[in-house]
Amino acid sequence: MKRIGGDQMQVRQLTGQTGTEFSDIDARDISAADFAVIKEAWLSRCVVVIRDQHLSEAELCAFSRRFGELEPPPASEARRREEEAAEMWIISNVIENGEPIGALGSGEAEWHTDMSYIAAPPSAPVLYGREVVTDGGRTWFANMYAALADMPPDLRAAITGREANHDSTYTSAGDLRKGMAEVQDVSRAPGARHPIVRRHPVTGRDALYLGRRTNGWIVGMDVAESDLLLDRLWDWCTQDRYAYAHSWTPDDLLIWDNRATIHRREAFDAAARRVMWRCQVKDSAAIRDSETIRERATIRERATPLPS
Ligand SMILES: [Fe+2]
Q: Which of 92, 127, 150, 170 is the most exposed place for a label (fewest CB within 10 A)?
């Protein structure tokens, strides 16, 4: 544990490559200098844990906004809230008056990147543990810089220059999204395509970039061949040596870099209460890139002579 500067903030590295824990700091009142240290840890070590926070909904949103503009909640989770907390939603298994108060239940959430099924997924998911469970329910993170850095050369060669489709049909908890039909052929699944090796828009480092295994497809490959390669990739990057497993204590505040990690949640006892508050930050760099790609496509379309 190390003190930073002249103030009280304590810093501890959680594993060799992944995760930094901060304590003795109040997320409602972080100086610019301390916030710069936290942001640097988020970028270089992918996961930040801030212990023992006491935040209102609006204060969680205000803290999250320091990382950038917030995404609105998914339509299925949008709830009536005070205006300053409109972007927050709840992840929970708790049922009140016959209705779940939040998303994702108590089952396992498979390894995934948040919302990689859209062109510009969020940069920073923020999760605040209001009521946590100690038996199961851990959140695992895998460092995708590290998984790429020591990948066997033949595996690296097999994915170089390739894109994958990130299916949007199911949630990470395995539920079919509203209005979606089950996928019969993964090469026709809806979603977004991203390079499998992606240069991080801020750090400039290359990272492996995978969405989730379910319905994944490597664009242009025979489906059986793609399945074999994806299985090998997922086996590689989910090894314990790239992972940090977070055991929640009440009032933990977590932020991770959604561009350089994948994460999963362990199942837990459905009768236990787990209530997490959640925000996520837009990836302004990826939005700029995807707009550039769209602009280029439009320019190409305009430049294509009309059939006569
Ligand atoms: Fe997630």
A: 150
Residues 6+ apart with CB under 8 A from 278: 88, 89, 90, 91, 125, 126, 127, 128
47 neighbors 244 (Cβ within 8 angstroms): yes
CA-nearest of 24, 29, 28, 30 to 11 is 24
Gyration radius of the chain's alpha carbons:
20
Closest CA to 51 of 66, 38, 62, 67: 38
48, 261 contact by CB (below 8 A): no
Cα(275)–Cα(90) distance, integer angstroms: 7
Please state, in angstroms and rounded to a whole number, the distance separating the CA atoms of residues 218 and 307: 32
CB atoms within 10 A of CB 63: 23
pLDDT surpasses 90 at 299: no
- Are 223 and 306 in contact, with CB atoms under 8 Å apart? no
Residue type, 225: E
- Fold of the 2-285 domain: Double-stranded beta-helix (3.60.130)
Q: How far is the CA of 280 from the centre of ligand 1 (A)?
A: 10
Q: Residues 29-82: pLDDT tens digits?
A: 999 999 999 999 999 999 999 999 999 999 999 999 999 999 988 776 666 666
Gap from CA of 256 to ligand 1 centroid (Å)? 10
27 residue type, one letter: A
Name, in order, each residue with C-beta under 8 angstroms of 183's C-beta and a sequence gap of 6 or more.
167, 169, 189, 215
Q: What is the pLDDT of residues 88-135, one digit of tens each?
A: 999 999 999 999 999 899 999 999 999 999 999 999 999 999 999 999
Residue 98, burial from CB neighbour count under 10 angstroms (0-12, 13-18, 19+): exposed
Distance 263 CA to ligand 1 centre (A): 6
State the distance from the centre of ligand 1 to the C-alpha of 113, rounded, in angstroms. 6
d(CA 79, CA 102): 10
